[in-house]
Amino acid sequence: MSQYILSDAGILSQIKRLQYRQQILPLLLIAASFIISALLQSHNWLKYLGYALTMIGVGLYIKNYLSFRYRNRIARPLPDTIYSPITGKSDQSQKSG
Prior knowledge:
- By secondary structure, the protein is mostly helical.
- The chain has a domain at 22-75.
- It has 3 helices and 2 strands.
- 6% of the residues are buried.
């Protein structure tokens, strides 16, 4: 069983929004490299620039994917621990099971 949970839908949507925002640059680099490669095929040195842009874009995309895969985790609550709400008040405490 994992020691981390992601259960709040609001937090998950914020995390995904941040991930999509950070994926814009790598995807633009990859698109620019394809455009350079397709439109300017007669210039050999631009072909290598396109390859370099593709590799940089793919590397940034993978780094972004991995950083959001392993970051922004919420620790799983410990059993036998009472957690109070951030706002509001507790009326009663019950133990399940």
